[in-house]
């Protein structure tokens, strides 16, 4: 069976995602569409609006055949590590192509940018160092260093979905995965746009509507808005308690808290602000809101694995969330390595070493998620993949 893979968050799953799945199947001619999806926490440090099983179910009902979870250790990370985890999982699923939504669908240019970043020249490395010493953020310094070699490539990095697309292609180049690429131009609202076109709105604007108690049903092909939703602000008191018990040395244990961010997080904590106000006050040109949110999620889960540890190991298991009959047939022919997990209790007994560490963080993230939506602890032990 021919397969194509997608890395997604579906936070929440909306008509734009359905459009991408439809176009992916059309353009790839694949028999099976396999999706790697963030679990309880997302790449930009958000708590997922809805339960991972329901988001996976929506994906299978509206175009996917298999959804597996990207573990917390890889999902709540920088774009580079998020891409590393997602692409390594698609490789384990034997996806022959990757499909992504982006603002620019020039595959040749996206690949050129990815190759320049994957294998930087001495000139680019020196330029990067110079920009960093001038006080620029890493993202800006990298973009400026790339611009000296290819202005069109650097311009790609002005747009968030292009950035992820380039990171996916960079991982394919670095690890020599036999995976072609399909770029689907985004339709409707742009990323983070408050506006909408027809029934397609950005995920962030849909989240804003739902969190404000407003009706977002016209933008969603499912009825999950009736379910309890989650937000990072629900963890304000826990996070503030953790900060009260922390000093700069303790905060530096977490992977993205460095370069003075530890002091900003503690200094700004003098007032018990609403969490989004706190994040806004801590952020500056060196420390983005996404980085701060991820750092808070790491503080919440006591996640102390370093970037080096994570980058040295691809995702050690495939945790199945939802599938249909086509997905079942595809998985049955795979005999994948690493193994597919469908029973969490059984997996915890058989898993060891690094894989057990990563799985333990997944369980903790799930329990913290359930705490905020007032569900029972350890519900993942009793959940089975959803057959659609």
Strand proportion, as a percent range, falls in 5-15%
The CATH architecture category of the largest domain equals: 3-Layer(aba) Sandwich
Radius of gyration: 20 Å
Q: CA-to-CA gap between the ends?
A: 20 Å
CATH class of the largest domain: Alpha Beta
Structural class: alpha/beta
Helix content: 40-55%
Biggest beta sheet attributes: 6 strands, mixed
Total helix count? 19
**What is the N-to-C succession of helices and strands?**
EHEHEHHEHHHHHEEEHHHHHHHEHEHHE
Structurally, the number of domains stands at 2
Total strand segments:
10
Give start-end ranges of low-pLDDT stretches.
Answer: none
Here the CATH topology of the largest domain equals Rossmann fold
Quaternary organization: single chain
Superfamily (CATH H level) name of the largest domain: HUPs
Please state the overall shape, judged from the principal axes of the Cα atoms.
globular
Mean pLDDT: 93
């Amino acid at each position: 069976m021919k397969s194509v893979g997608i890395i997604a968050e579906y936070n929440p799953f909306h008509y734009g995602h359905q459009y991408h799945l439809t176009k992916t199947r059309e353009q790839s001619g694949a028999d099976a569409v396999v999706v790697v999806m963030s679990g309880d926490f997302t790449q930009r440090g958000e708590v997922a609006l809805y339960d991972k099983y329901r988001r996976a179910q929506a994906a299978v009902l509206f175009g996917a055949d298999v959804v597996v979870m990207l573990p917390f250790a890889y999902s709540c990370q920088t774009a580079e590590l998020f891409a590393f985890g997602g692409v390594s999982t698609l490789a384990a699923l034997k996806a022959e192509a990757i499909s992504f939504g982006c603002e620019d669908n020039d595959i040749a240019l996206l690949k050129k940018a990815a190759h320049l970043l994957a294998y930087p020249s001495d000139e680019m490395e020196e330029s990067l160092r110079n920009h960093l010493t001038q006080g620029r953020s890493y993202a800006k310094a990298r973009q400026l260093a790339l611009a000296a070699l290819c202005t069109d490539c650097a311009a790609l990095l002005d747009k968030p979905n292009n950035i992820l697309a380039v990171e996916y292609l960079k991982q394919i180049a670095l690890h020599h995965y036999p995976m072609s690429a399909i770029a689907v131009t985004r339709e409707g609202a742009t990323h983070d746009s408050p506006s909408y076109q027809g029934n397609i709105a950005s995920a962030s604007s849909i989240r804003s509507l739902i969190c404000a108690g407003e009706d977002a049903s016209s933008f969603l092909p499912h009825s999950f808005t009736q379910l309890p939703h989650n937000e990072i602000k629900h963890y304000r008191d826990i996070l503030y308690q953790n900060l009260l018990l922390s000093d700069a040395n303790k905060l530096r244990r977490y992977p993205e808290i460095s370069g003075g961010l530890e002091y900003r997080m503690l200094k700004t904590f003098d007032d018990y602000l609403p969490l989004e106000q706190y994040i806004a006050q801590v952020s500056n040109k060196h420390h983005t809101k996404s980085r701060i949110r991820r750092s808070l999620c790491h503080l919440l889960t006591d996640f102390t694995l370093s970037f080096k540890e994570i980058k040295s190991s691809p995702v050690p298991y495939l945790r199945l969330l939802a599938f249909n009959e086509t997905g079942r047939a595809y998985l049955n022919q795979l005999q994948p390595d690493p193994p597919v997990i469908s029973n969490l209790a059984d997996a915890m007994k058989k898993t060891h070493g690094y894989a057990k560490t990563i799985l333990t963080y997944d369980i903790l993230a799930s329990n913290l998620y359930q705490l905020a939506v007032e569900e029972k602890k350890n519900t993942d032990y009793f959940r089975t993949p959803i057959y659609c």
